[in-house]
Write a structure and sequence with these properties.
Elements (H helix, E strand, L loop, with lengths): L6 E6 L4 H16 L3 E5 H6 L2 H5 L2 E3 L10 E6 L1 H11 L6 E5 L14 H9 L4 E14 L2 E8 L2 E5 L7 E7 L2 E8 L1 E5 L7 H4 L11 E7 L9 E4 L4 E4 L9 E4 L3 E4 L5 E15 L5 H9 L6
Parallel strand pairs: 1-2, 1-4, 2-3, 4-5
Antiparallel strand pairs: 6-7, 6-17, 8-11, 8-15, 9-10, 9-14, 11-12, 12-13, 14-17, 15-16
Length: 295
């Protein structure tokens, strides 16, 4: 049986007043259970002195080294940000929803005590969500690496303009694409930008990635679902003006140069995402996407 959590790190969207209010309810729940609390530095600066006084305060990149569980208060963007920070230490993450959709942050602030207390005691469901990694190759050398939980997106930047790029999967040529860009998404990210672009919903348990062209020039250019162990390579020819950008989870932005190669593949890191015992993935889809509840 899983053991109760004794050391918890807290992270959240600092500028959201609702997030700060939720921490005001959350911290007493943790202190009542005699749990050691660690705050990341920027969050700590915005909390009342009495809450800071009972916690350890560390930089965000050290938070997971001082915790057995990370609680994220905010929206899915906050989870995406936290995932890249904590995944290296294999510390589980749970989200309290203070965002909009909340596909990943499924604990309601209104039911905070009832839903969180059993998890703190070791009663929860755990999901493993894989990440993908981006390596930018320039003149034969990898000059940049980044992680994404949702998706890696090639796009034109601030100017709406069609791009040209070549797509290869596991060294095999697929096509030369003419479109506004390309989304390479994990099952986690299949309900984000990829869904808005016409891609399929992938169940989180699938070992798969989906490639979704953004407004392709040809109507026959459709999303492709591939094995997650494949390597996708996008080559940027010099004909593009302006040169395209690439983003990871919509939070890390990088510029490309002519003849760059973008290598996207499954990362070795896996996010441990916790849910309440009554978590139902299909209920989440029904609720967030407005599907009918009639049987």
């Amino acid at each position: 049986m899983p053991k109760p959590f004794k050391r918890i790190g807290l992270i959240g969207k600092h500028t959201n007043p609702e997030v700060q209010s939720t921490f005001g309810h959350l911290i007493p729940i943790l202190t009542h259970r005699k749990i050691q609390i660690t705050l990341e530095t920027e969050l700590a600066q915005l909390l009342p002195l009495e809450q800071r006084a009972i916690a350890h305060i560390v930089p965000e990149n050290e938070l997971s080294k001082h915790a057995d569980l990370i609680i994220v208060v905010g929206g899915d963007g906050s989870i995406l940000h936290a995932a890249r920070s904590v995944v290296q230490d294999n510390v589980p993450v749970i989200g309290i929803n203070r965002g909009r959709k909340g596909f990943l942050t499924d604990i309601s602030p209104q039911a905070l005590n009832n839903e969180l207390t059993p998890i703190l005691a070791g009663e929860y469901n755990q999901e493993l969500r894989f990440l993908i990694t981006l390596g930018i190759e320039r003149q034969g050398e990898i000059i940049s690496n980044s992680l994404a939980l949702n998706d890696i997106v090639l796009h034109s930047g601030d100017i709406a303009r069609m791009l040209s790029f070549e797509v290869m999967i596991d060294g095999q040529f697929v096509y030369k694409q003419h479109s506004d860009g390309m989304i390479i998404a994990t099952p986690t990210g299949s309900t984000a930008h990829a869904l808005a672009g016409g891609g399929p919903i992938l169940h989180p348990s699938l070992s798969a990635m989906v490639l979704v062209p953004m407004q392709p020039h040809t109507l026959s250019s459709r999303p492709i679902v591939i094995d997650s162990n494949s390597t996708v390579t996008l080559t940027i020819p010099s004909e593009n003006t302006p040169l395209p950008h690439v983003s990871c989870d919509g939070q890390v932005y990088l510029r490309t140069e002519p003849n760059d190669k973008l290598h996207i593949k499954r990362a070795k890191e896996t996010l441990r995402l916790l849910h309440p015992k009554n978590y139902d993935y299909y209920n989440t889809l029904r609720t967030k996407l407005g599907w009918s509840r009639e049987r």
